[in-house]
């Protein structure tokens, strides 16, 4: 893990397309601004983990037999 120290209004660059800037510091909270291409999904970690959990649960509910039936119906 890379650990950086940044002051207010300073930024870090990730690759060519992503910039993370410190916008405000208020007590123990930091406000970040993230400038990235629209095709890059950005989520808070807890939201990302919820999405991954829901995707995993949905994938478990899909059976191969159900998919085969759908593919056969779609081809007719």
From TrEMBL:
Where it sits in the cell: the answer is: Cytoplasm
Q: Keyword Repressor: yes or no?
A: yes
Q: Which InterPro entries match?
A: CsrA, CsrA_sf
Which one GO biological process term can you cite for this protein? mRNA catabolic process
* Gene it is expressed from: csrA
Q: Name one GO cellular component term.
A: cytosol
The protein's name = Translational regulator CsrA
User: How does the record describe its quaternary structure?
Assistant: Homodimer; the beta-strands of each monomer intercalate to form a hydrophobic core, while the alpha-helices form wings that extend away from the core.
Source organism per UniProt: Alkalihalophilus pseudofirmus (strain ATCC BAA-2126 / JCM 17055 / OF4) (Bacillus pseudofirmus)
């Amino acid at each position: 893990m890379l650990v950086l120290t940044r002051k207010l209004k300073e930024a870090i660059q990730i690759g060519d397309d992503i910039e993370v800037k410190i916008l405000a510091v208020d007590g123990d909270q930091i406000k970040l601004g993230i400038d990235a291409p629209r095709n890059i999904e950005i989520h808070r970690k807890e939201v990302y983990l919820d999405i991954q959990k829901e995707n995993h649960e949905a994938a478990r509910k899909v059976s191969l037999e159900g998919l085969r039936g759908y593919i056969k119906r779609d081809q007719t």
